[in-house]
Amino acid sequence: MCDKKTRFRHSGDLYLTEKKLMRELEQKYTGLEGIVFEDNVFPLDIEGQYQRGDRELYRFMKENTKFVEEILNKADETGIEHAGDILSYMIIEHHSQDDTAWEFQMTRRQLQYLLNKIYEEVFDNEQG
């Protein structure tokens, strides 16, 4: 299993696509967004309403997007100015470091320093 920083990069890369697919499934199956998933158990009273592939896909995407959102919230809680926005802009919206530095009005070197600081605050001493 990969560490949380690597998982965040991979999950963040898919975040927008997963959110879009989740909305489509929520439109297809009313009430899907309110389902609580735990320990691979799907609520029996709605079992027959969904195709197994759809509900498993939804569950995976829900867990994945929640993970990304938790990391972005942690970044915002670090006290580092624009930390969550910077990670979102780079990882989720797929902008280069050059574009991100320009967007947040800093040099690329300043951005690299800030990213190291953000990653240290968010991921330091955590295991995957």
Tell me about this structure.
- The protein is an all-alpha fold and 128 residues long.
- It is built from five helices and no strands.
- Helix 1 crosses helix 2.
- It is elongated and about 50 Å long.
- 16% of the residues are buried.
- The model has no long low-confidence stretch (mean pLDDT 85).
Q: Helix and strand layout, with pairings?
A:
Blueprint: H1 4-28, H2 52-77, H3 83-92, H4 97-103, H5 108-123
Helix pairs in contact: 1-2, 2-3, 4-5
First-to-last CA distance: 7 Å
How many DSSP helices?
A: 5
Extended strand count: 0
Tally of individual domains: 1
Category from helices, strands and their pairing: mainly alpha
Give the helix level as a range of percent.
55-70%
Ranges where pLDDT stays below 50 over 5 or more residues in a row are: none
Biggest sheet, open or closed, and with what strands and sense? none
Name a few traits of the molecule.
128 residues; mainly alpha; 5 helices
How would you briefly describe this protein structure?
This protein has 128 residues and is mostly helical.
